[in-house]
Structure formats: structure tokens, C-alpha cells
Write a structure and sequence with these properties.
This protein has 530 residues and is of the alpha+beta class. It has eight helices and 20 strands. The strands form five sheets. The protein has a seven-stranded mixed beta sheet, covered by helices on one side. Strand 1 and strand 2 form a beta hairpin. Helix 3 runs antiparallel to helix 4. The longest helix is centred in the middle third of the chain and has 45 residues.
Length: 530
């Protein structure tokens, strides 16, 4: 989705107070530093053009908010200065829900009047998906929409406590990160934006996710406007999509509309409702998972409590017991068969000539001939040495922030009761992102032969990749082994022993099903060639 063109972003035919036809991919702005790559939208209210660009000095992608206008127009210049001032204040604000402002360029300070720009806000580039593209396919599931807005509402709440207006009341300024959270990717609040506008924007974003329609003025042409009742009120999402919960539908409308005594005016109030919705969804999903057992409501899910981990352990013990029973039965039957053969062989010796039904000894086999057994001899197991101890382990996610980074250490601590797990996903990889994994670092290079995964989630598909650094691009790593995790322990042999200092256990398919996809790993052992 990062390859969207200007016309898809809704801004190809837009002409502001000055001609902006020269704003095309390949043009360099900001005193020759930033090369434009692709346009992601136009906030027509402030003539702000949203671009992805390449920083020629630092060799990295950035998000540019280009304020287009005539430098000779004093009113336009005044409004642009106000936006740049607000962006400068925002540069001191740090939160995962807002892209960090890297630089603010003004006339005479980074840009010239000949560029047709009144200012530029430079922010870090946010990997992920375009919000407009996301809702263009279909509305988002209510539970997922609530979680997305919850992360954004936390950023608004913290910013407002610091007296900052974020200016997120335009959907093309937002992006969905690989972790499923919304982020303000193109900072630069309009000059007249208020704290109330941020709160209303949260309701409008929720409405957009639930219905695919935008309920505030000034939205992009690519998104249809929210319908109104004959009285001029916004039609609740539940009337458009009957599966939307009543509380979420009411939250969206009450946050957007100004009239009445039931309106929601603060992000803190929105967070309280969203947290209640999230808790209710967790209980609902848990009841479905355990077949409607009400007692399970207080036990939580594998995400938050140890109870499901114990359940997994019980299932593993049960599976192990069944396996032992089956093996014992096979051994007993085989022993009984041998006893019957011996009995019949004894009778034949007493009554007549001996018929030799056994295979001749190995020494009597003709040279170069296989044994008489119907099954070929298994290949010899590769010789491995004792497990190598990693110097460090971290979550590897080239698309963004990793899953449960604080728990990564549990994957190599040798304790089966502590686990690392991914986040819970509604959709299977690679719909949301290509994968996630763990990267381990060894003090000295090892000649890796096998990787043993203990306590892994069944159904998970993993690749073992070698790397030349701790945080490489996925394309720069090499697949040296792969396998499917089973209940209990799974040993993944490499195609051939591989020398290296960095190895990645890369998850390409999660365990679980029905919108509850998750993988956990209790322990990893790295076995070098013996």
C-alpha cells in the first residue's frame, strides 16, 4: 500500500492557492534534501500535502507535510507560521501513537520562496497501511476498531495533559502500524484546531472504521460522507451495520456531535468506554473458546493469565500419556507375535525338517545387497554438540515494533514455565504483516545444526534464518531451515550446518484459529554440529 500514487490519495487534481503541479515524485524540496516518493493525501482545509520522501542526507524515508501557498499572501503565510509553531511544540512530545517530528522548515529557514511552499513538517516514516485503503475494502470488525482507536486515544489524552493539540481530524494523516494500532503519521495541526477537535476526531475515526464513512467536514473525496437523518443528526453506525455493538455506535455519535447533555468531551471518557468494550469482547471470546463455561469468565485468556498455560500443560500430559499407552500396546502385541512364532518354530522342529523363516545373518548377505527387511534402514542422525548459549535475544519485527519485547528473554532462559508469545491477531500472517520472530546473538560464531523449540504452539510455521547483523532487513537474511511446531518439543534440522553469529526464528504462520491467532514459545535450544 506504500506505493499509492497521487491520484489514489485524492490529490492529483487538487489545486490550492498556487499551482502545485510540480509536486510530483522525483522533485527535491527543502533546500535539495528531500526527494518526493509518493503522495498519500491532501488536507484541503490547510492546503497541506502529505508525502513520503527520501532524506538524501540521512538515507532514510520520512513523512512530509508540505504547506502549499503563495509567499506573497500575508494571511496564508500567517496561518502557515501558526501550524509550524504548533508542530515545533509537538516535536518535544513522545508517544507511540504519534510519529516523531524530526524537523520544521520555514521560509528562509530550509525552504525558499521559489519552491511554492510556506513550510514543511518532517516526521519519521510510519510503516504499515494506509487508513483509507483499509476501510475501502470493508469495515473493520468492532473489537479490532475499538483497539485501534484505544491506542490513538491514549496518545490524545497524554498530549492534552501537556497542553498540545495533535490535529488528527483527517483520515489521510493516520496510518495503521504492523501491530494493529493507529498512529498520527503526518503531524501538523491546523492553525485553528482545538482540543475538542482532537476528541471529535477520535469519534470520527471510530465511525470510519465501523462504517467506511467519514463524519466530519473536510474529508478526502475517496471516502463517502456519513449519512444524516432528516433532523440533521448523524446516522448511528449500528443503523448502517447491524453487527456494530450498541455501546460503540453510541460512543462514536456522542463523541462527534456537540449538542445535547449526553455528549463525550474528553479522551479520558472515550478510553473508559473503549476499555469496557475490550473487556467485554475478551469475555465473549473466552466463553466461545471454552464452549460457554461461565466459570471461565474469571480465568482470563492465554494472553493475560497463567490458567490457560496450565490447561495447555494438562493437554500435553494427556497427549504424552496416550502416546505411551499406544507404544506399550504395540510392544505387547509385537512380543506376543514373537512368542507365537517361536511356538510354531518349535513344533516344526519336532515333526519335520526346519524351515528357516528368519533373515540370514548380515555376514551371509551378498556384497552390495540391502538387508532382507522390507523397510530401509533409517539415515543416521546428525551428530550435535551441547546447546550453545545465546549472548542476547530480542524480538525481530522489520515492519515495526516487536511483539511483547519485554518477554523475549524468557525464550532462552531454560525455564519451561516462562514463555514468550506474540500478540493476538484477528487475521493470519501475512495479511497484517509478513511475520514476527526472535533474533539471537552469540558471543562467537557457532556452526548451527539444529534448533529445538520447546513449548511451542502447534500449527505454527517457522523458518530458521541466518543473518549478518542484529537488525537486518528480512531480504538480507537467508533461510537455512524450516518446520511446523507440534505440541511439546519440535526439533528443526538445518539443511546443512551453518556458521554464524546471528540467527532468527521467524514465524510465518501463527497457531490458533477463528480470529484468535497467537504463538508462544517456552524455550529455544541452538545445537551446533558435533
Amino acid at each position: 500500500m506504500d506505493t499509492r500514487r497521487s491520484e489514489q490519495a485524492g490529490g492529483a487534481n487538487h489545486v490550492g492557492k498556487t499551482q502545485v503541479g510540480s509536486l510530483a515524485p522525483g522533485r527535491v524540496v527543502g533546500d535539495g534534501r528531500y526527494r518526493l516518493l509518493a503522495q498519500f493525501g491532501v488536507d484541503e482545509r490547510g492546503d497541506a500535502h502529505l508525502w513520503r520522501a527520501r532524506d538524501g542526507q540521512l538515507k532514510r524515508d520520512v513523512a512530509l507535510t508540505l504547506l502549499v501557498g503563495d509567499p506573497a499572501d500575508p494571511e496564508a503565510a500567517r496561518l502557515a507560521r501558526r501550524t509550524l509553531e504548533r508542530a515545533t511544540h509537538a516535536s518535544k512530545f513522545g508517544h507511540g501513537g504519534v510519529a516523531r517530528v524530526l524537523d520544521v522548515l520555514a521560509l528562509g529557514s530550509g525552504i525558499t520562496s521559489s519552491e511554492g511552499l510556506l513550510g514543511v513538517v518532517v516526521a519519521e516514516w510510519t510503516k504499515g497501511s494506509d487508513l483509507v485503503d483499509l476501510v475501502a475494502q470493508r469495515p473493520v470488525a468492532p473489537g479490532a476498531a475499538a483497539r485501534m482507536v484505544q491506542a490513538l486515544a491514549e496518545a490524545v489524552e497524554q498530549a492534552h495533559q501537556n497542553g498540545l493539540v495533535l490535529g488528527l481530524d483527517h483520515p489521510q494523516r493516520l496510518r495503521l502500524t504492523p501491530n494493529g494500532a493507529l498512529k498520527l503519521a503526518f503531524p501538523g495541526p491546523l492553525p485553528e484546531a482545538t482540543l475538542r477537535d482532537d476528541v471529535k476526531a477520535l469519534g470520527a475515526v471510530l465511525y470510519l472504521l465501523l462504517t467506511g464513512r467519514w463524519a466530519l467536514p473536510g474529508g478526502p473525496p475517496a471516502i463517502p460522507a456519513a449519512p444524516l437523518t432528516p433532523q440533521g443528526r448523524i446516522v448511528p453506525p449500528r443503523q448502517l451495520i447491524p453487527t456494530v455493538p450498541a455501546d460503540l455506535s453510541s460512543l462514536a455519535v456522542r463523541t462527534i456531535e456537540d449538542g445535547g447533555n449526553g455528549g463525550i468531551r474528553t479522551s479520558a471518557a472515550i478510553l473508559r468506554v473503549l476499555e469496557q468494550v475490550a473487556e467485554e469482547e475478551e469475555r465473549t471470546q473466552l466463553i466461545k473458546a471454552v464452549g460457554g463455561d461461565p466459570a471461565a469468565e474469571t480465568e482470563g485468556t492465554v494472553w493475560t493469565t497463567k490458567k490457560p498455560v496450565k490447561d495447555v500443560a494438562r493437554r500435553r500430559k494427556l497427549a504424552l500419556g496416550v502416546t505411551v499407552l499406544v507404544v506399550a500396546t504395540v510392544v505387547i502385541l509385537a512380543w506376543g507375535g514373537l512368542m507365537l512364532i517361536n511356538v510354531f518354530q518349535g513344533d516344526s522342529k519336532a515333526s519335520g525338517p526346519t524351515i528357516n523363516v528368519a533373515a540370514p545373518p548380515a555376514s551371509s548377505q551378498p556384497a552390495g545387497q540391502p538387508p532382507a527387511s522390507s523397510q530401509p534402514a533409517p539415515p543416521p542422525s546428525p551428530t550435535v554438540g551441547p546447546a550453545a548459549t545465546p549472548q542476547a535475544v530480542a524480538v525481530y519485527n522489520p515492519d515495526g515494533k516487536g511483539d511483547n519485547t519485554a518477554r523475549a528473554k524468557y525464550a532462552t532462559d531454560g525455564k519451561p514455565e516462562t514463555v514468550w508469545r506474540t500478540e493476538k491477531y484477528k487475521q493470519q500472517f501475512p495479511v497484517i504483516k509478513s511475520g514476527v520472530g526472535l533474533v539471537v546473538t552469540f558471543k562467537d560464531p557457532i556452526n548451527l545444526s539444529q534448533v529445538k523449540v520447546s513449548g511451542g504452539t502447534a500449527g505454527t510455521k517457522v523458518e530458521i534464518r541466518s543473518a549478518t547483523e542484529k537488525n537486518p532487513d528480512l531480504a538480507d537474511t537467508k533461510v537455512v531451515g524450516n518446520g511446523d511446531l507440534q505440541d511439546g518439543d519440535t526439533t528443526i534440522p538445518l539443511a546443512q550446518p551453518t556458521q554464524g553469529e546471528y540467527f532468527i526464528v521467524w514465524i510465518t504462520q501463527l497457531g490458533g484459529e477463528d480470529g484468535q491467532f497467537l504463538t508462544q514459545i517456552a524455550d529455544l535450544s541452538f545445537l551446533p554440529a558435533g
